[in-house]
Amino acid sequence: xxxxxxxxxxxxxxxxxxxxxxxxxxxxxxxxxxxxxxxxxxxxxxxxxxxxxxxxxxxxxxxxxxxxxxxxxxxxxxxxxxxxxxxxxxxxxxxxxxxxxxxxxxxxxxxxxxxxxxxxxxxxxxxxxxxxxxxxxxxxxxxxxxxxxxxxxxxxxxxxxxxxxxxxxxxxxxxxxxxxx
Amino acid sequence: xxxxxxxxxxxxxxxxxxxxxxxxxxxxxxxxxxxxxxxxxxxxxxxxxxxxxxxxxxxxxxxxxxxxxxxxxxxxxxxxxxxxxxxxxxxxxxxxxxxxxxxxxxxxxxxxxxxxxxxxxxxxxxxxxxxxxxxxxxxxxxxxxxxxxxxxxxxxxxxxxxxxxxxxxxxxxxxxxxxxxxxxxxxxxxxxxxxxxxxxxxxxxxxxxxxxxxxxxxxxxxxxxxxxxxxxxxxxxxxxxxxxxxxxxxxxxxxxxxxxxxxxxxxxxxxxxxxxxxxxxx
Lengths: 181, 282
Hints:
The structure holds 2 protein chains of 2 kinds.
Chain A: H1 4-29, H2 32-48, H3 57-70, H4 75-88, H5 104-109, H6 114-125, H7 130-137, H8 141-164
Helix pairs in contact in A: 1-2, 1-3, 1-6, 2-3, 6-7, 6-8, 7-8
Chain B: H1 2-15, H2 24-43, H3 71-84, E1 88-98, E2 102-111, E3 114-121, E4 124-134, E5 137-144, E6 149-156, H4 178-183, H5 185-195, E7 197-206, E8 209-217, E9 222-227, E10 234-241, E11 249-259, H6 263-267, E12 278-279
Parallel strand pairs in B: 6-12
Antiparallel strand pairs in B: 1-2, 1-11, 2-3, 3-4, 4-5, 5-6, 7-8, 8-9, 9-10, 10-11
Helix pairs in contact in B: 3-5
């Protein structure tokens, strides 16, 4: 069937490269659940534009992932998180924080604004050049440079704060809630 | 030192555990297909096809739990719940216009005669406005982000046009006077429930809620509402506007939260003035 063709092609693609693509999506989105949603949203968009895609669907899928992530696709989720924080009246320290240090920086990465996070993931995980990252994100190389540099600086700051607070035995309010436009 | 940090970041990135879920592609295809069908139906003006207004449960995502429900019954319960609720209404609307991927987010908070509307374009705040209406006057605080300014002003309150709502072609809160638009979200849905033609399309999980999926056809808009079966208040709504055979359309996703009027939630009705913003006369 004609409608089955994109399903088969993308299923084959995910069999071959699903883990890598999902890891990229998880890094861009900040969590496994959000990463899955992001990948699914990108797949949906590929289906929508299937007839107009020329060449490699993997390239299109990747670019869609990057675009969605850079556009703050999951900001809705962070809004939900902000609302639930307000309703709870106090921040809830996560008991696993102190134990699981393996993905410490990954968790700090989700504190960054979407464009900074995307730039860092594309530069340090996808290993794209500044020009390639700029092309993928639809902005200039200068913007990528600035976003990467600000993001890394912020990441170091956050890391410094978290480490100076020891193993998570603070009052749980170290989480940043401020907006960085 | 710096290289160490970058290396640590890279190694953590490589160590993130992922488990691709089987069926991800088919799920995405089903979602894409559902949207396409909804858009096509709306574009073809097949609202009449649902004229009976009777709900037929047709297998949502949890078919085992789906019960045949009468759409009129669900609509009546939603109208009563909206009329009775005394909560801070939080509404987050995301409009996506294709092609071009233009993103506009509008967040609304409303309670009584106070409302706040924060607009962001492509992720950047543009305006944050609070209106408070009393004695026929609308006292507004406006924060204009691109100009780094804020101001206050008072002007006569403007009422929404009679009959405003989804029953009028192309009507949405964005087309109503500012204060009314935020305050009238409840009314807008109420009016839509009065004139729309609905079917219940089973259940679907939204935000962890096994929500009732209510599909409505209005004069110019096709909308799907997800209803919390415990409270009968809306959880989420999707409308499609400007549909055509081409890809040029706007999809509007609206989330609802019905917050208790606690001090913290009432504080959300006031826009924060960012440091360094200059006050100007309204």
